[in-house]
Amino acid sequence: MPNIANLLKSEIARVARREVRAETKGLKQAIAPYRAQIAELKRRTRELEQQVNRLGRVAKKTAASAGPEGDTGSRNLRFSAKGLAAQRKRLGLSAQAFGALIGASGQSVYKWEEGKTRPRAKHLPAIASLRTIGKKEAAARLASLER
After folding, report:
1. Which pLDDT score, from 0 to 100, does residue 58 have?
2. What topology is assigned to 81-146 in CATH?
3. 102/133 Cα distance (integer angstroms)
């Protein structure tokens, strides 16, 4: 004759499994849509990250082609130490006077001409504007600054 304790134990285990299965069935049904939503969100996230990467590469290319000033609409201003020295001599100005016209010191102009340093971006437009003037206009601008 089988042991009553073993029968009781096996019956309790069977009933417990049945109860757990009934409880988990509802949870599994509730989880299924969440899993689908998570998978869809992962796909969307991956697509958006790819778009961000593509846009970042395009932005880098456009920034590189636009130059250091970006898309401000200004042309690229170049600087040459020899060109600056030649320009100053063409206008017949001392380094101090040339610096006064562009808003810098004479010492800065000397260092720029020697190639030891480069002018800051704020000085480049002023230097470029002096390329188009002659000696008389330079003298007139200098006289107006000294007043």
Report:
1. 87
2. 434 Repressor (Amino-terminal Domain) (1.10.260)
3. 13
